[in-house]
């Protein structure tokens, strides 16, 4: 396995400390412990202590003290589903459902290359990280022949940003000629997909506690991969000791597709191919009946809930309250920015709460603290990292965010968690990943946002020209 890149941004003495005081804290621990005014001490890349009042006296090697007055500290947000490459195809097919949207965009996506993928990854990451994401995830499944090292370019972009990252190495082998949606030239062979996925895991996956880069095995969806790719992909992931990810139960069209092709619904089909289990998480899971939810709860199969994308594509409302009641691990996902043009996870806290209140449970569906849990600890559960991130507790990795809540947008809301979730998107004064600052005063520290804006615009225009000529 690859060596940890935890210190790729900055090498700090392990005992160097950052002290944050006078800050409201939502720990999102098992008891939902909160402090109206408390402290957090970060030592190296770990949280050393957290509690009410001022920090302990006599701390050595304090390199920075931060007055958190007017701020709320939370765990860093954890994104559980995304497609970075879509950053350069935003704003297209805006009035389509999922299948028509895919058919419209696949011919364009199938012409991406390494330079485009790197720029798009930078854009997607920059938007999330500046908005409080400390652990990002990308499900990349489009690998045109001769396009270069796409996985390596995505991982490089995440490393340069300083964010913790999971690459779900996707694949497709069911094209139009086999009854799938992707064009014939846009897919890999079964053997090629499995070999490339195994190579990516062996080259990049880090299984250590403080890993900055991990890799999951991630065939794209039931309608773009063969049954053999799902089965052998699951076997590969378990042989290598990594997690599994795919799309599931996103639309009524997918439900119909599975019944017509496999004679069963998506959940039963996934179970028949070895794709239910505590090492698996699915994107969307919108169209789930009681039996499906019970199966996910029984097997602890995770769900990446993507409320904005589900609304954008008119997919429906996922039954998140029922999933949580059944013990299903649920996190939040941005999804690709061709179906969620803002690309910001902190807005998904609010959207998850509001959209779920349109469902059967109405005002009792989710509250502010449940929404925050989905975006933090829930995401850590889904990615298999709940012992390391997702809550603010002594001994855990120092991935945390200070949200500024004393401005016009929030200052008249007394409860800081309500302000964060129900209110406008809050500015990020400080974001730490692995104990190192990656955002200060809503600006990224390790990359040039303006340069990324220019490069993503240029690459979007280049891709559009290539697709038009084809």
Relevant terms:
21% strand, alpha/beta, 470 residues, 35% helix, 4-stranded parallel beta sheet, 9-stranded mixed beta sheet, Metal_Hydrolase, 14 helices, 17 strands, 8-oxoguanine deaminase activity, MTA/SAH_deaminase, disordered N terminus, Amidohydro-rel
Draw up the topology in text.
Layout: E1 17-26, E2 34-43, E3 46-52, E4 62-67, E5 71-75, E6 77-78, H1 98-109, H2 114-129, E7 133-140, H3 150-161, E8 164-171, H4 190-204, E9 213-219, H5 227-240, E10 244-248, H6 252-262, H7 266-272, E11 280-284, H8 290-299, E12 302-305, H9 307-312, H10 320-325, E13 330-332, H11 346-356, H12 368-382, E14 400-404, H13 416-422, E15 428-433, E16 436-440, E17 443-444, H14 449-469
Helix pairs in contact: 2-3, 2-14, 4-5, 11-12, 12-13
Total beta-strand segments: 17
> What is the straight-line distance between the termini?
40 Å
Specify the biggest β-sheet.
9 strands, mixed
Q: How much strand?
A: 15-25%
Protein name: 8-oxoguanine deaminase
Pfam families: Amidohydro_1 (PF01979)
Keywords: Hydrolase
Domain Amidohydrolase-related: 73-417
Could you explain how this protein is built, in words?
Its EC number is 3.5.4.32. InterPro entries: Amidohydro-rel, Metal-dep_hydrolase_composite, Metal_Hydrolase, MTA/SAH_deaminase. It is an enzyme of class 3 (hydrolase). The chain is an alpha/beta fold. Helix content is 35%, strand content 21%. It has 14 helices and 17 strands. The strands form three sheets. Strands 1, 2, 3, 4, 5, 14, 15, 16 and 17 form a nine-stranded mixed beta sheet that branches. A four-stranded parallel beta sheet has the order 6-7-8-9. Helix 4 (190-204) runs parallel beside helix 5 and helix 11 (346-356) packs across helix 12. The longest helix has 21 residues, at 449-469. It is globular, with a radius of gyration of 21 Å.
């Amino acid at each position: 396995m690859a060596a940890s890149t935890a210190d790729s941004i900055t090498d700090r003495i392990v005992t160097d400390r950052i002290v944050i005081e006078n800050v409201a804290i939502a720990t999102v621990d098992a008891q939902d412990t909160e402090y109206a005014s408390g402290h957090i001490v970060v030592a190296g890349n770990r949280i050393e202590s957290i509690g009410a009042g001022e920090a302990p006296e006599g701390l050595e090697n304090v390199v920075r003290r931060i007055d958190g007055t007017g701020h709320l500290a939370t765990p860093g947000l954890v994104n559980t589903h995304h497609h970075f490459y879509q950053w350069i195809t935003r704003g297209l097919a805006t009035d389509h459902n999922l299948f028509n949207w895919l058919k419209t965009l696949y011919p364009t996506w199938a012409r991406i290359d390494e330079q485009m993928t790197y720029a798009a990854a930078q854009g997607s990451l920059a938007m999330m990280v500046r908005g409080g994401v400390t652990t990002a995830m990308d499900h990349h499944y489009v690998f045109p022949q001769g396009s270069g090292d796409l996985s390596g370019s995505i991982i490089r972009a995440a490393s340069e940003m300083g964010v913790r990252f999971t690459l779900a190495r996707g694949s497709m082998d069911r094209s139009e000629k086999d009854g799938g949606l992707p064009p014939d030239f846009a897919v890999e062979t079964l053997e090629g997909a499995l070999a490339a996925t195994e190579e990516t895991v062996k080259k990049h996956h880090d299984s250590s506690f403080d890993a900055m880069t991990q890799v999951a095995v991630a065939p794209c969806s039931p309608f773009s991969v063969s049954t053999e790719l799902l089965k052998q992909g699951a076997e590969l992931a378990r042989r290598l000791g990594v997690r599994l990810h795919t799309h599931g139960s996103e639309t009524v069209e997918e439900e119909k597709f599975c019944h017509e092709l496999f004679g069963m619904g998506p959940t039963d089909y996934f179970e028949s191919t070895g794709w239910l289990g505590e090492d698996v998480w699915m994107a969307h899971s919108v169209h789930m009946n009681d039996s499906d939810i019970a199966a996910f709860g029984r097997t602890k199969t995770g769900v990446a809930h993507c409320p904005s994308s589900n609304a954008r594509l008119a997919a429906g409302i996922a039954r998140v309250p029922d999933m949580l009641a059944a013990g299903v691990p649920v996190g939040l996902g941005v999804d690709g920015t061709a179906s969620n043009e803002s690309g910001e996870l902190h807005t998904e806290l609010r959207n998850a709460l509001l959209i779920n209140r349109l469902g059967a449970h109405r005002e009792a569906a989710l509250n502010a603290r449940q929404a925050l849990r989905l975006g933090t600890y829930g995401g850590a559960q889904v990615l298999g990292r709940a012992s390391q991130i997702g809550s603010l507790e002594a001994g855990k990795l120092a991935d945390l965010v200070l949200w500024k809540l004393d401005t016009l947008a929030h200052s008249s809301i007394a409860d800081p968690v309500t302000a964060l979730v129900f209110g406008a998107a809050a500015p990020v004064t400080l974001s730490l990943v692995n104990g190192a600052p990656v955002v200060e005063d809503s600006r990224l520290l390790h990359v040039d946002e303006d340069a990324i804006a220019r490069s993503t615009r240029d690459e979007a225009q280049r891709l559009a020209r290539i697709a038009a000529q084809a």
